[in-house]
């Protein structure tokens, strides 16, 4: 086994969105492709998938790059389940009516990511998944899937049946459903759709706010595991290289560059969310919302510096803060020592919508809800100004086999001598 393949075999996907072993993902791809072929007979592609196909067919460079990415992956021995763009479009169309089942041993919570993961990290694939027109059409496809997941037909696996039911005993051991609002006496435990289950609400008191009256304690904005902490961040940096430093102007993408400049020299904390955990966002500090906006971006673009590896999207989480679809909420803290805190909630893979529920001018208390991820793999970061943070509660080295930090629990302490 070559050094590169040894590295690929030893790397782990974060957050339980995808199987840890390639053979499990390959088996999923083959099964989904077979279902797509069976369903295709006599059924036209949906209009959004047809439009995606027309874009690819009408752009010779895009068509060439995607075809070569598929061919290159197959030539390397990857089992995709499809061999050309037409077959891939059939798969994409099938997945717009797919509800992810639970799996204890080989979870695939982001099925389109599973189907695309090798072509997107081939040399020509990087250009495809950064193409603005391609991402705009892909966003329409993902929005169609999100609409399906918001309807009653998406509840196929919101059942107690083993092994694929989300309310089976193995699933409940991971979900901690006692912390969430539900009614086991009702069909599908009272959830109107898959998305209602995915964005389930916490029971009152399930996540108490750490030190609610002490502004020196900053709390976790998401139920997430630590990914990275960087200090002395720059206005502009080479976010696409192996170390993936944070580049403030690209992350915030504000028409007013002074916003990014106010965080120069500051600190970034980043965490990633798990498929099994809570997906709503909460305020890390008391204060007033001064900015709240969405940024369009990519969905499956990863950094070439991570190499040809299916975990590239996970390992590109620093890079995704500057290029992926995301929501930005800036809170001007009630504590002048803290000043502004920028909260950036990043949609990875199948996230088609980052829903913001606050607006500029709103007053928020630490622990108040700010918004939620509609569905998919997710990461987030908090940006602090220079000399604000004394220390973070989580400390490296980071581990992906421990429980995530609870939302509203203590994340960091403010430098009182600032």
Automatic annotation (TrEMBL):
Give the top-rank taxon of the lineage listed in the UniProt record for this protein.
Bacteria
EC number per UniProt = 4.1.1.65
Q: Give the EC class as a word.
A: lyase
Against InterPro entries, the record matches this protein to: PS_Dcarbxylase, PsiD-like
User: What GO MF annotations does this protein's record show?
Assistant: phosphatidylserine decarboxylase activity
Q: Name one Pfam family in it.
A: PS_Dcarbxylase
Keywords of the record, alphabetical order, are: Decarboxylase, Lyase, Pyruvate, Zymogen
Q: Does the keyword Mitochondrion apply?
A: no
Q: Which residues form the L-tryptophan decarboxylase PsiD-like domain?
A: 47-175
Query: What name is this protein filed under?
Result: Phosphatidylserine decarboxylase
Q: Which organism is it from?
A: Paraburkholderia silvatlantica
Upper classification of the source organism reads: Bacteria, Pseudomonadati, Pseudomonadota, Betaproteobacteria, Burkholderiales
């Amino acid at each position: 086994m070559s050094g590169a393949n040894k590295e690929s075999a030893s790397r782990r996907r974060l957050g339980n969105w995808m199987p840890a072993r390639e053979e499990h993902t390959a088996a999923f791809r083959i099964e989904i492709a077979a279902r797509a072929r069976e369903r295709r007979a006599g059924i036209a592609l949906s209009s959004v998938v047809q439009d995606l196909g027309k874009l690819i067919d009408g752009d010779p460079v895009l068509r060439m790059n995607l075809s070569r990415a598929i061919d290159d992956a197959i030539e390397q021995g990857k089992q995709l389940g499809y061999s050309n763009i037409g077959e891939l479009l059939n798969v994409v169309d099938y997945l717009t009516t797919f509800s992810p089942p639970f799996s204890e041993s080989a979870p695939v919570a982001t099925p389109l990511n599973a189907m695309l993961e090798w072509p997107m990290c081939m040399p020509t694939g990087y250009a495809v998944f950064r193409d603005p027109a391609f991402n705009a059409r892909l966003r329409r496809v993902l929005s169609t899937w999100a609409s399906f997941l918001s309807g009653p037909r998406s509840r196929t696996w919101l059942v107690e049946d083993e092994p694929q039911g989300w309310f089976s005993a193995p699933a409940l051991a991971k979900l901690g459903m006692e912390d969430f609002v539900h009614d086991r006496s009702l069909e599908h435990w009272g959830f109107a759709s898959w998305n209602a289950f995915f964005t389930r609400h916490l029971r009152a008191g399930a996540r108490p706010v750490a030190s609610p009256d002490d502004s020196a304690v900053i709390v976790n904005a998401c139920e997430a595991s630590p990914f990275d902490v960087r200090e002395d961040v720059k206005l502009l940096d080479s976010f696409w290289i192996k170390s993936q430093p944070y580049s403030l102007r690209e992350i915030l993408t504000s028409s007013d560059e002074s916003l990014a400049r106010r965080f120069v020299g500051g600190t970034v904390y980043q965490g990633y969310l798990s498929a099994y955990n809570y997906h709503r966002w909460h305020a890390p500090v008391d204060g007033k919302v001064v900015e709240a906006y969405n940024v369009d971006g990519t969905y499956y673009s990863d950094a070439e510096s991570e190499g040809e590896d299916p975990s590239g999207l996970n390992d590109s989480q620093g890079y995704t803060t500057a290029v992926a679809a995301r929501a930005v909420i800036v809170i001007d803290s009630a504590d002048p020592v803290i000043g502004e805190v920028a909260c950036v909630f990043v949609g990875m893979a199948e996230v088609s919508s980052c829903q913001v529920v606050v607006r500029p001018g709103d007053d928020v208390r630490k622990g108040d809800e700010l918004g939620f991820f509609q569905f998919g793999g997710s990461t987030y970061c908090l940006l602090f100004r220079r000399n604000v943070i004394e220390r973070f509660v989580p400390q490296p080295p980071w581990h992906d086999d421990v429980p995530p930090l609870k939302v509203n629990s203590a994340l960091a302490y403010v430098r009182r001598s600032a």
